[in-house]
Amino acid sequence: MRIGVYICHCGSNIAGNLDVESVREFAGSLSDVVVSKDINYACGDQGQDEIKKDIQELDLDRIVVAACSPRLHEVTFRRMAQAAGLNPYLVEMVNIREQCSWVHRDAYHYATQKAKDLVAMGVARARLLNPLTVESVPANRDVLVIGGGVTGIQAALNLADSGIKVHLVERDSTIGGWMARLNDVFPTNDCSMCVLAPKMTEAADHPNITLHTYSEIQDITGHIGNFHISVVHKPRYVDVSKCKGCIELCGSVCPIEVPVEVDGGLSLRKAIYLPMSQAVPFVAVVDPEHCVGCGLCVKACEPEAIDINQKEELVEFDVGAIIVATGYHLFDASRKPEYGYGIVKNVITSMELEQMLNASGPTQGRLVRPSNGREAKRVAFIQCVGSRDETVGNPYCSRVCCMAAIKNAGLIMNKNPENHVTVHYIDIRAGGENYEEYYIRQQEKGVEFIRGRVASVKEVDGEAVITYEDTMTGEIVDSTVDLVVLSVGLEPNTKADNIVDYLNLSRRPDRFIQVAHPKMRPVDTHTRGVFVAGCASGPKEIQVSIAQGMAASARAQGLLSSGSIQKDVMGVRLVDELCNGCRLCEEVCTYGRIKVIDGKAVVDELTCGGCGTCAAACPRGALQVRHSTDEQILAQVRAATEDIRETPLIIGFLCNWCSYAAADLAGTQGVSYSTNIRNIRVMCAGRVNPSFVLEALKGGADGVLVAGCRLGECHYISGNARAQQRMDVLKDVLAELGIDPGRVRTAWVAASEAGKFAGEVSRFVEDLEIMGAIGSELDK
Amino acid sequence: MSKLSFFLGCIAPNRYPGIEAATIKTLEKLGTELVDLEGASCCPAPGVFRSFDKITWLALASRNVTLSEEMGLDILTVCNGCFGSLVDANNIMKEDPELKEEVNKILKEIGHEFKGTIEVRHIIEYLSREVGPEKIKAAVTIPMDLNVALHYGCHLVKPSKERHLGSVENPRFFDELVEATGATSVDYEDKMACCGAGGGARTAVLEPSLQMAVNKLEHMKAAGVDCIIDACPFCHLQFDVGQTEIKKKFDKVYDLPVLHYSQLLGLAMGLPLNELGINQNLIINEEFNKKIERIRGGANE
Amino acid sequence: MSTEPAKLLEEEGFSYLTCIQCGTCTGSCPSGRHTSLNTRRIVLSARRNRDVYHDKDLWMCTTCYQCQERCPRGIRIVDGILTLRAESVHMGLMLPDHRKVAGLMIDKGHAVPINDDGRAKRKELGMDELPETVHKHPQALDQVKKLLELTGFMQLVTDEGTENS
User: Fold this and answer.
1) Environment class of residue A87 by beta-carbon count within 10 Å: exposed (0-12), middle (13-18) or buried (19+)?
2) Which residue in A187, A488, C24, C89 has its CB near the most CB atoms, within 10 A?
3) What would the pLDDT profile of A420-476 be if each residue is shown by its tens digit?
4) How far apart, in whole angstroms, are the C-alpha atoms of residue A661 and residue A646?
5) What's the gap between Cα A141 and its chain centre?
């Protein structure tokens, strides 16, 4: 083995605060190190050239660069190695700037000692590094879009336009989703169908889109690049290729009438019907629940399109990526009994109002009182019905209801300026482009906004009476109105539960689908190759849903553009002969990427994120993280404790994403803390096997710090929580052994919390000084 | 035969003993024996005493519970206020070890200890869950063909997180029991509203308290009912005595007879008005009495 | 010395800090229609540490729990009011009629004790003149009295405190 070690001065950034020459000399004394140099700027062209030259001339097979944080330049030095013909994963960086020289400015001697220890740890790890190659597998380039609402349609169109074949699966007999049910839409008052219908038609006609309407996903297997999809086409009892959508002939003879659900039963339809006047595909469907099978329609249909014997059909296909656009469902207003929905006749939901206001709706756009069909002039909107309400388990804001109510209130004023329209609100949320201006315009029309959540609605002499406190004046008011509109909130679509299960997605506490990161990865999910867009991941306006549909399509496109998927080199690998199929790994993998099949664990290496929580759980060491093996980590621990020159000594295990980043930030911000800690970077706190901690204590470390992201913010969902559990158990074990459990400490630090990290270290050092050297408690 | 201790409270035994008598008689017919809970005190009234000093309230209520614990019996109450106090206290004592310790220190001085071995029941909740409308219907000998305004009262169903009796906006279980006697529970405006008596309001601020009762009585009267059915002697008193006070203060007359459910049940089981103490009320409506006699007479023919 | 309202409610575990002042409580309050009671303002005043203890509106609440049932933030409003009342009582603020009822409790063990009318009614129904409560069992009444002394309740009722209601 021939290791080259390079100590970077970083100008005076490092060299100003510690003795570079002494570190270089020390590095040179380590076994297997054949060259040890100091370089003014290792990352600069000159520095890189020097190392490259050494790799070639001295035949180096491992490189250790002691410089800044690997989070900054690890990629740089890997590229450098590759250019010099060395496998890039044989480079190890030692962080002596952010986590040493910058945080120990007034401790020249100790900083130098710490740098030496860190270099020794780096060399120890470097000896055990393995060359890694990025493997890739061929990927299917087709995409499945689940849900034919505006989000799914938009995503499908974008993909199809860029030449990708799309399967668009919709449960209903027409695409269009909720948007197709809306009247006009804010903030421009376009007629909803006028802007949506062209997209619906385009989706149906697009050569790259296969439309599966009236279809259910029955199963999804496989993974990124190669998902296998089973879809059931439910029988509509109408031959799509023959039906002309005339509906006249069949509908007129059908003897069955069924109330239309979406408009609150204000209108009726037949058992054979068009789901809406601009349905896509434009074909009739038979409602098997109500059809009595009289056969009159079969005889009436001239193109002979009706087929009573039609059976469901199973269709199977493969795709490389999936976009989940399963949308929402509306809050069931009868769950707020105090608002009288279903009891007080003149109480309707906001969606029923959309139908009523629609010129082609059940009342031809007339605003009426359901109780007697007379014109409604006094209209009250009750906001936050089923939103921001813990009594129904929905503490979240549904985000669209304020603007929808403002819009409809304005439309009602347009019909007749003499109408009296009130909007009863807690807070008006008009936070979108042009929304506030839109709100102002409706106010100018005379819509009255009354601050106070309505307490109850009751029926008195056939009229609806709302009771509320006007919180601006403190008055309790009973107000008789012609029509009460409940602005019902948006809830997660429970009909998509099977999709969530098939794809192993997770749900947030609000039950919507969780995205990989709430800010930075808004359409990614925790499952590689699966994206989510629109209201499936939380209530959104049309504009945002469309943007997300576009974003998800771009993500899918980018993923599949090369036609192959790269495995993560950092992923977990199974050492077959060690596995006894105990299933512990299955339990701890939050992503479900490990399954025990025939008594052996099988890791889905394509989708494994490499957190290593499973590896830490495996009692037999059968799971190894490729670039973070047990032996590599233990070698670092042993190197740090081999020749202890500073006490108390702390070994820190820091997660890459938050706590290590916080330690780096402490350096950038010059927040100083005690020199006593030697950090080991892991991808996740969940990677820390309790045996690492024991090894450190056994070697003579006085304390061990396990630090990760703040609880609930883990980049691998719950690795930090798992670490917390493990350390709690370990502390009990230590206590039983007579070792002070306070020697093991956990800290959950966000990447921005430099001061908190520094404080944790300094406090820990102080506490350890009181505790005394490791093992001293055994003498007492 | 099921056995429960009978917690009387204050108003039932001391003002409307007909409720006490009716309860014992009707439950016996339904196979539940009530045993005297000797030496029980005021529950104590939640609105007032709980408002004064939590520990006093908790200790007194716990003492009442321990009396029944010592007999090994669950407690039956006929009053929403007693129910509220005793259930809440029983739950707090079972769930909060610190308060339990503090209260048990006091109870020890007077020879009791709270153990947490029994449950507290309310007659309506008990009949609904343990007996059921069907069995009551079977025990009815004279179906009471009456239109009644049912008043649930507040503490029977609220706070719902403690009571677990379902919907507080549109509950049905009490209506079902009323309808099992042959009566019709007529819907009326603000049916679930408060009578106005609780929380110490009747004691301290009588006028607004009565205004709340007026609100209820107006709506009941408008619904054209024969009488009010309640499940709480304090609501009972508010409606009965309250009507006389309302007449004086606001010059409004409703003349609505007020019956506790046990009394309605008694009538339906064939017991006469006077055995049930219904005419010991301040509001005596002759027309109602005649109607009852007619129903009884009709049944005897 | 009284505890500040905000601190008191926090100690008792009431999540009043998340109140959004929506007015559902006030709109649901049967008493607020006839009195000056505004539950929303009581929560706000407590949150801002205003002196709610001297606010007579505290005593207008019938504890019907309708506000608490409907509160979208799940705030235990009535339980909070009871806690504020208790603190107020401990400051010596007790309404005269409530003091009378408390006195009855101390003397008789019943907030509504038996009277001649009640005895007559019982007799008429063929019942014992006295119910099987503390009324009939003097040792039990002694227990109640001792209990009230131990909890400091007697003191609380007789001692009108520094501030008279």
Assistant:
1) middle
2) C24
3) 999 999 999 999 999 999 999 999 999 999 999 999 999 999 999 999 999 999 999
4) 25
5) 23
Q: Give the distance, in angstroms, between the CA of residue A602 and the centroid of all CA atoms in the same chain.
A: 25
Tens of pLDDT, residue by residue over A695-718, are 999 999 999 999 999 998 888 889
Q: Is the dihedral of CA B13, B17, B20, B24 positive or negative?
A: positive
B160, B169, B192: best mutation site toward chain A, by most A Cβ within 10 Å? B169
Q: Which of residues 46-65 of C touch B (CB under 8 A)?
A: 59-65
Which residues of chain C does B11 touch, with a Cβ-Cβ cutoff of 8 Å? 112
DSSP A423-456: EEESS----STTHHHHHHHHHHTTPEEEES---E
How close B113 gets to chain C, by Cα (Å)? 13
Return the beta strands (E) in chain B as ranges.
2-7, 32-36, 75-77, 120-122, 147-150, 184-185, 227-230, 258-260
Total beta-carbon pairs less than 8 A apart between chain B and chain C: 220
| Cα–Cα distance for residue pair B89/B59, rounded to 1 Å | 8
Per-residue b/e over A479-509, b at no fewer than 16 CB within 10 Å?
A: bebbbbbbbbbbbbbeebeebbebbbbbeee
Q: Where are the beta strands (DSSP E) in A40-183?
A: 62-67, 91-95, 136-138, 143-146, 166-169
pLDDT value, residue A717: 86
DSSP designation for C120: H
Closest residue in B to C92 (Cα–Cα) = B52
CB A659 within 8 A of CB A750: no
Helix and strand totals (H; E) in chain C: 9, 0
Domains, chain B, with CATH or none: 2-122 (1.20.1050.140), 140-300 (3.40.50.11810)
Within an 8 Å CB–CB cutoff, is residue C27 touching chain B? no
Chain A CB contacts of C41 below 8 Å: 474
- Which among B98, B97, B20, B106 is positioned nearest to B62, based on CA atoms? B106
Mutate to test the interface with B, among A344, A347, A391, A456 (most CBs of B within 10 A): A456
- Tell me which chain C residues have a C-beta less than 8 angstroms from the C-beta of B91: none
| Chain A / chain C CB contacts < 8 angstroms | 65
Residue of B nearest to A336 (CA): B169
